Amino acid sequence: MESSSKTESCDISETCNGKVDLEEAYLPKSEGTVSIISRGNGLLCPEDFGLFQYEGFWYHSFYLEGVKLAQEQFKPQSTDIFLCSPPKSGTTWLKALAFSIVTRTEFDFSTNPLLVKVPHDCVPMLEVDIVKNMSDRNPEFPLLSTHMPYSSLPKSIIDSGCRVVYICRDPKDVFVSFWHFICKARPEIGFVPMEVIFELFCQGVSYYGPYWDHVLGYWKASLEQPERVLFLKYEDMKRETSVLVKRLAEFIGHPFSMEEEIEGAVERVMDLCSYENLSNLEVNKNGRHRVDTPVAIENNTYFRRGKVGDWKNHLTAEMVQRMDRITEQKLGSCGLMFCGDSKP
To answer: 268: which residues sit within 8 A by CB, 6+ positions away?
Structure first.
């Protein structure tokens, strides 16, 4: 499966009503393959969030180092299963579900590590955990995760027989979640009005963004080789959880037997990994993730609401129209849309 080229129909640098315009307000300075955008006119800019542009996508400097290391050195096993997603799109839920499915014969549901660890500590992240020591891996555990866009995945992954599971979400909900995340996870920046983050997001500036480019890369890959790339939408997962949990299990090579289904194993996985259960666990209410790193974060930051359509509580009609227009321009011609009522 060949890596898709940079998405050709995705121009999202439309006018930003004078608030934030990356082309006009900031002067790019080149440092090798990484574009650093300097502050202009006192406006909020990507570097305020520690963001750097690399291969057409925006990365926090902490993750960018790992991305480049992975591209240069990572050697996958043919049995590896990559859980891929843009941030704020259902990553935590997907990790919990996949981990619970893969380890269900190893752990009783009452002793599953998910009860005492945040899902991000159960599934190692390629550009953070794996690159620290690539030889220190459990060869029997197939799950790895990444936020890397498809076009930036190490060539070794593309050329291997690895399976990829991708989850994405309505960009309106992604944006709202991203804004809340910024306000909570980056207190040194201070409170940032939603309108400011909205302008940046619409221009593609977010962690591992542009969001639409990220989604489109994996969507095209799933169309080209559906036996290797499973493409999931958060909204579908919420609506048809049982059906898609079984599809996920089958795709990653751990299908539920008829006996397991009769005994309620699918429902137990769903209950263990539900937002209601995970968000109320002590570790997820009071624990911390990636301590002693520049991106240390409270575990409860990963559990805000877990609802579909929360954007209706935050976005104006003008915001909805603009984001829907970008989504149609970016994804509509490829047959990918996010279903749902777009009335705020």
So the answer is: 109
- Amino acid identity of residue 145, one-letter, is S
User: Which residues are known to be catalytic?
Assistant: 147
- Residue 223 Cα to chain centre, angstroms: 20
Rounded Cα distance, 164 and 217, in Å: 12
Amino acid at 11: D
Query: Model's pTM, two decimal places?
Result: 0.85
Nearest-10 Cα torsion for 115, 116, 118, 119:
-50
Task: Answer positive or negative: Cα dihedral of 50, 54, 56, 62.
Answer: negative
Per-residue tokens: 183: 């306000």
How far apart CA 241 and CA 246 sit, in angstroms, is 9
Q: How crowded is the C-beta side of 113, counted as CA atoms within 13 Å?
A: 19
Q: Could you give all domains of the chain from N- to C-terminal order, each with its CATH number?
A: 49-334 (3.40.50.300)
Tokens in use for 155? 């060539």
pLDDT digits (tens, 9 = 90+) for 243-277: 999 999 999 999 999 999 999 999 999 999 999 99
